[in-house]
Design a protein that fits this description.
Layout lengths: L1 E9 L7 H17 L4 E3 L17 H16 L6 E8 L8 E9 L2 E7 L25 E3 L2 E7 L31 H7 L4 E6 L7 H16 L3 E5 L1 E4 L2 E4 L3 E3 L5 E4 L6 E9 L23 H19 L5 E4 L4 H14 L4 E5 L7 H14 L2 E4 L3 H12 L9 H8 L2 H8 L2 H8 L2 H30 L2 E4 L3 H5 L13 E2 L6 H12 L9 H5 L19 H13 L4 H10 L4 H13 L1 H5 L26
Parallel strand pairs: 1-2, 2-3, 7-8, 8-9, 15-16, 15-18, 16-17, 18-19
Antiparallel strand pairs: 1-14, 3-4, 4-5, 6-7, 9-12, 10-11, 12-13
Length: 616
């Protein structure tokens, strides 16, 4: 029996920072070697960060990555480092790269494995950039132990839908069987006693259980341990949780690094016929076995890490959040505070004539609870002015711009001219006209707030975080250029009911109430007209959330969704209404900022639907 001390380097890489990543890799390599590692394993495309997307189409970028890898190799000693990088295959044609893993020691690249299986589903586009490797080797030798190296999808092997919303994530029952396409089979046939897998695996809810199920199945089927190393950190709409781990040959997880945190650690693993899980103090054995997270804690940390990295990696320090006193803006402000610290978060209350006293005080209480900067900018002057300008733009009004401006009068007069909601509705005339005028007025308020937030961003250099959740984003319950104005949509992939669950979870964490109870208990409302509630325009979220999930994440047709609706005691008319709302809001989502992906299918990279679309 041989014992191998594995070094696992779970790093928060900076995509495109080739020199910075090389420095990070060398520092982690030295740290692992000092801990006694006999091999140090990094993640997929370590040198560039993952996913580099169309940077891979730039020859200079690929050449720079090669130079960075050479620098890493030169910094290695006798202990091998396994590092991911894009490799020019030299083949003709636009797709000419390999997704490769370099085995470096004694100052040189000594061997290269090229990824076989290139995922082209969900958020992955690897066939746009890479060609498949064909060789299962070379094997890496660590003392007397032979090691098979592979990259991400290579561990899974058989055809599948990896991010399918199923109990096992699409894990097939044929791992290790005749239909298995993983290079791991050939590596074990070549004598590999240990499998090492480099990953760029984005987070989604429940993903870690699926990863470990794959590795456990692979290990027990082939009778060899599996090492799985993943990167950590946010990259645009993707967030990587790390959660690197090691299984023994029986499929038991014997090492797991913490989720959503950088970590360099070593794990002692016995290789041979009699497998046993190492434990601290056992002949100097070392291993980390971080616990799995509570599902809500997992999502909260994903949003915190994604927000922190989006802000800081894009050169910002501070953020602005429009605070309405509602649950969504409260959640975003709390996430931002945990991500950046209260001194870097600026809450802006922008009350209108329709804002209740409770909402104003709830926003102020939230800011006090979080310890963030809070300021109030009433929108009534702008609202009244723009409403008056629109009155002057009615059809048939051929008066000059100067006359219309004169008619508007002072701010106070304009506000008085607008009058009560009932007066305005009566002036409009028909029901259709009243509805259009009411909607116009609501959207106007939202757009004023968006303008103010962007103006504050310009003045102070703050990055604006938007506050729309996935449910509302799905059905277009948003105002384009209004509440969609900003740089990062923190909860755009979080269903409405989960937003409530997250806020309740955060309040239970022992550092005091963060989100005021009033924000959690009052009926959701945009407060853009008197006594407005969300359920006047939308179905109850208890119905809407599961319908949206089935339609968006489950890819059901409207007809198929009726069966789901029946289980919820909803009728076909409601289904057609919801699916139509989702479909016609596509143009809004295309113009909305990116946000972190936490579900099996988010808007953006995951779901690419046509805007002009007649299929229902």
């Amino acid at each position: 029996m041989a014992r191998v001390r594995l070094g696992l380097a779970q790093l928060n890489l900076r995509l495109g920072d080739l020199d910075g990543n090389a420095e990070m890799v060398l520092a982690a390599y030295d740290e692992a070697v000092e801990l006694g590692a006999q091999v140090v394993v990094f993640s997929e495309l370590t040198v560039t960060g993952y996913p580099p997307e169309d940077l891979l189409l730039k020859p200079a970028f690929v050449e720079g990555a090669a130079r960075a890898l050479e620098r890493i190799a030169e910094g290695t000693g006798k202990v091998p480092a396994v590092v991911g990088f894009p490799e020019d295959s030299g083949q003709a044609g636009p797709v000419r790269l390999w997704n490769s893993a370099a085995m470096c020691w004694d100052g040189e690249v000594r061997g290269v494995f090229r990824k076989h299986l290139l995922p082209n589903y969900s958020v992955f586009d690897e066939q746009r950039y890479f060609v498949s490797g064909t060789e299962a080797g070379p094997l890496l030798e660590i003392g007397d132990v032979r090691v098979g190296v592979s990259v991400c999808e290579d561990l899974w092997g058989p055809p599948r839908t990896a991010d399918a919303a199923t109990d096992d994530g699409g894990l097939p029952s044929i791992i290790g069987g005749e239909a298995d396409t993983s290079p791991a089979l050939a590596q074990v046939a070549m004598g590999a006693q240990l499998l090492v897998n480099l990953n760029g695996s984005p987070y989604r809810r429940g993903k870690q259980a699926d990863r470990e199920a794959v590795a456990r199945t692979r290990a027990s089927a082939l009778g060899v341990p599996v090492v799985y190393v993943n990167q950590v950190g946010g990259q645009d709409e993707l967030v990587f949780d790390g959660s690197s781990f090691v299984t023994d040959a029986d499929g038991s997880v014997v090492c797991r690094l913490p989720a959503f945190a950088e970590k360099v650690a070593v794990c002692d693993l016995d290789i041979g016929d009699a497998q046993r899980s190492p434990s601290p103090g056992d002949d100097g054995a070392q291993s980390v076995l971080a616990p799995t997270l509570d599902p809500l804690e997992e999502v909260w940390l994903a949003l915190v890490v994604a927000t922190r990295d989006y802000v800081r990696k894009n050169g910002f320090t501070d953020v602005a959040v429009g605070l309405s006193g509602g649950i969504d803006s409260s959640a975003v402000a709390a996430i931002a505070t945990d991500a950046l610290g209260p001194e870097h978060v600026h809450g802006v209350s922008m009350p209108s004539r329709y804002s209740s006293d409770g909402s104003r005080t709830d926003a102020a209480q939230l800011a006090a609870n979080l310890g963030i900067d809070f300021r109030t900018v009433p929108i009534e002057p702008a609202h009244a002015a723009l409403a008056g300008m629109l009155e002057g733009a009615n059809p048939g009004d051929d008066s000059s711009a100067a006359d219309r401006a004169a008619d508007v009068g002072s701010t106070a007069d304009r506000a008085a001219d607008v009058g009560s909601t009932a007066d305005r509705a009566a002036d409009v005339g028909s029901t259709a006209d009243r509805a259009a005028a009411d909607l116009t007025d609501q959207n106007l308020q939202s757009r004023i707030r968006g303008v103010l937030l962007m103006a504050l961003s310009n003045r102070f250099g703050w990055l604006v975080l938007t506050t729309g959740n996935k449910t509302e984003t799905s059905v277009g319950y948003t105002t384009l250029y209004g509440d969609t104005a900003g740089a990062y949509a923190v909860i755009s992939d979080v269903p409405k009911l989960v937003v409530y669950e997250l806020c309740e979870w955060r309040n239970r964490q022992g550092d005091g109430e963060r989100i005021p109870q009033a924000c959690l208990t009052k009926p959701p409302s945009a407060e853009l007209r008197p006594d407005q509630r969300d359920d006047q325009s939308l179905p109850p979220y208890e119905l809407l959330d599961p319908l949206v999930e089935a339609y968006v994440e489950g890819d059901l047709s409207a007809a198929e969704l009726i069966d789901v609706a029946e289980e919820l005691s909803a009728d076909a008319e409601l289904v057609h209404r919801v699916t139509r709302l989702v479909d016609i809001a596509e143009y809004k989502r295309r113009q909305s900022p990116p946000g972190p992906r936490i579900t099996a299918k988010s808007f953006g990279k995951d779901r690419r639907m046509p805007i002009t679309n007649f299929y229902r």
